[in-house]
Amino acid sequence: MNIAEFVGLFSGAAWLAFFAVLAAFGVRASRNQPAKGLGTVLVIVLVAAIGLSVVSAGLVFVAPEERGVVLSAFSEGGVRQEAIQPGLRWVIPFAETVKVYSISRQTYTMSTVGGEGQIVGDDSIQARTSDGQIVYIDASVIYQVNAAEVIPLHINWQGRYEDGVVRPQSRGAIRDSVSQFGVEELVSSKRAEMEVMITSTLEKSLASNNLVLVDFVLRNVRFSDEYAAAVEQKQVAEQQAQQAKFVVEQRRQEAEQARQVAQGSADAAVIAAQGAAQARLIEAEAEAKALDLIANALAENPNLLTYQYITKLAPNIQVMLVPNDNPYLLPLPNLPAQSITTVE
After folding, report:
1. Is residue 120 part of a domain?
2. pLDDT level of residue 151 (50, 70, 90 thresholds)
3. Do 218 and 313 share a domain, yes or no?
4. Is residue 187 situated within a structural domain?
5. How many CB atoms sit inside 10 A of residue 338's CB?
6. Is the pLDDT of residue 256 over 90?
7. Is 312 inside a domain boundary?
8. Residue 307, Cβ neighbours under 10 Å: how many?
């Protein structure tokens, strides 16, 4: 309780005391009882009540978050040209009164949910997009009275600036901005741009009415039931398409994996065949070189073959039986006559 209210309380108490003493004085006078003392008290209480009432009417306390507009019978236009600043102030009693305005931040909310905003029930903004779709906007406007423009604000709007300025200007700015965007843009890339556009428009309109926009909050964008159902169906279709694309990609990867496995097997078989062929070629070349060496050795020493033949025979053989009509495979060395027997 500030001092101005305290003085007002005493003023009220003084008047109550005055009427109480006056009633007692009347009762004593009606009974022909002495009331001289009550008369003196009555005068004292009356003077005190009047004095306190005058002081109470002229004393004004303005809080730090407030500004006072003085309505004066002595000022041109009926109002002082300067607002009262915070503190304990004095005005002309009964000739001037003070209308106090808060300059603190205030929030005006328009919402679908009842109880969130200043108006009971659905107070969202219905707006139409550039492609003809209806959307419902929930928003909050945070604003404050321009401390330097309290006098013109009072002259133009008195205490009606919330319903007369903030609400209609906000709803109009939101509808105008929504109409410049498609419904798909509002839920994707253009939502922030729309919020900036609304903020800029609302800032100018409030400033022209002696108010300051602190912030604009786009709380929610809700679609009509029909459009919401269509969006849900579209999302389901997109999810199914993505799933089908995933399956196709999975099958392609499996086919590619099988192809690579088959290619690897084929490459391994080719490498193995090439290895076997190379080995056989090396073997054949080795055999050919061996035969060349043998042929060269036989050419230089014809008896070498006979020698090899004889060495393969038993070491103590003295007699050989061969058919008489077959030629000798190899020319035998000269053996003793008794060692050779011809069978007829």
Report:
1. yes
2. very high
3. no
4. yes
5. 8
6. no
7. yes
8. 12
